[in-house]
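Internal QA ticket QA-208
Title: Verify multi-chain structure generation after dependency bump
Assignee: T.L.

Test input:
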Amino acid sequence: MAEGTLALPQVEAARPVHRLIKLLPGIFLLAAIGYFGKFIEQSISAYAKANHLHVPNIEYVLWAILIGLAVSNTIGIPEVFRPGVATYEFWLKAGIVLLGSRFLLGDVLKLGGLSLTLVLLELAVAFSLMTLLGRWFKLKPKLSSLLAVGSAVCGVSAIIATKGAIDADDEDSSYAIAAILAIGAISLFTFPLIGHWLHLSDRGFGLWAGLAVDNTAEATAAGALYSDAAAKIAVLAKTTRNAMIGFVVLGYALYWASRGQAQAIGNKARFLWQKFPKFVLGFLLISVLATAAVFNKEQLGSLANLSRWAFLLTFAGVGLRTNIRELKAQGLRPFAVGAIGELSIALVTLVMVLLAAKAFNL
Amino acid sequence: MPQASQEQNKRRAFQLSTDWCAVLTALALAVLVRVGLIHKVPW
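Actual output:
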């Protein structure tokens, strides 16, 4: 007993350092792949310029993702790198918080207000569609709920939060996550092509990507593939969507609890706070500081570049975590429901964005 | 508890702490930029 009591603090003290050391190889891998992507983009651009060639500019974002995909789907990710590679979500969130420095609070309120209106419409469309498609394809009702939440709000995080709240099966959540990830990977490559084809403005495309691409990392990457300005708007729209997660999960939890198939919710305010993505608060705080002129122009430039470096690691992680074989192994039906639903959501949100672009001159 | 469920609980806990870690890291970086310890970050 005494031995255990004495030993505990030592173990606890050693843990964080040990954990940090375990993360380093993977973080180094993310940085190396991301930087290599940037290096390829710069090298091709310099070569084309020196030789007076007209080569289409392939952004570092795409290189980083493609290299990551190639690594994870050929040699795989060795165990030693896995904990660090999983930190790509941390870099994504830190990057989003830092990106707050590029928004004045007025912009956040104006664009965030427009995003919020469009997000609410998108949520209504996504829930109705996914529920109907789930019925037509005879999916289990809880799997349909998970797919609806994943496609309406924010992909994997929303599915995991809902899974716990509605007591869904592990198998259902794995299906839903696999379907949403596969569709996210496809959207990432197709959205910028469609955006260019339709000659969407940076703001219009950013808004569309933020509304229709499921995972925050993929939405950010799709925006960055289009342009820097589009990435900024995509993050804002996606962050607005993410902020809805608590309400959506609460709604589903109450629905399933009323049918006696999930635990009842005690304190609803506490539940909402638990599910609320806290990095949104960081994003708003940095935006408030930037609006209050706490940073000068050079400092704002530094914060924006720190945000870009954080995203660079995220994009490498997006490629590394996508395993095509694992996605294929999950079966076709949930993927078909997800794909048909996502395609419809993409079309509806595109029409919404085109109308908003006309009305608000985006 | 099944292993997959344990994994997902771990992931949920990880995500909660990731949110706060990301916010604190970003704020710490912002402070360092503000006081001049980090300046002219290249891209």
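Spot checks passed. The radius of gyration of chain B is 17 Å.
Status: verified.
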